[in-house]
Amino acid sequence: MDDKYVRRIKIGVVGLPNSGKSTIVSSLSGLFIRTANYPGTTVSINVVNLTIKNLRIQLIDLPGIYSLSSEMPDEEVATKEILRGNYDGFIVVGSTLSLQQTIYLLVQLLELGKPVILVLNMMDLARKQGININVEAMRRRLGIPIIPSVAASGVGMGELRKLITEIAQSSIAVNTKVIDYGPLEKYIDAVSARLNAPRGLAIEVLKGNDLLKEERLKAGDIVSKAIEEIGQIDVFVARKRWDFVSSITKDVVARGVQVNLSKLDYILLNPKVGILASLALLFTLAEVIFLVLNPLVNYISELLSMIPIGELMVNVGNPLIRSFIMDAVWNSTSIVLSFIPYVFGVALIIAFIEDSGLIIRLTFPLEKWLRRIGLPSRGLIYLIAGVGCNVPATSSTVAIPSSTDRLITALMIPYIPCMARLLVISLIAAAILPSQLTGVVMILPFVTSLIGVMVMSRLLLPLLTHIRVKLTARVPYAYELPQLIIPINRFFVKKVWHYTYEFLVRAGILIVAFSALMWVLSISGPSGLIGPEALTNQTLIRSTWLSLIGDLISPIFKPLNIPWQLSASLMYGYVFKEVILSSMAVLYGTSEEGVINVLHSALQLPSALALITFITFYSPCIATLVTETRIVGVRLTVINTIAQLLLALALSYIVYAIALLVV
Amino acid sequence: MNQVEDVRVNELPSGSVARVSRLLIGRLRDLGIMEGSLIRVLFSTPNGPAIVETGDGRPIVLDSDAASNLLVTPLSIPQRHRYRHRYGS
Ligand SMILES: Nc1nc2c(ncn2[C@@H]2O[C@H](COP(=O)(O)OP(=O)(O)OP(=O)(O)O)[C@@H](O)[C@H]2O)c(=O)[nH]1
Ligand SMILES: [Mg+2]
Question: Residue A121 CA: which ligand 1 atom is closest?
Answer without folding.
Answer: 31
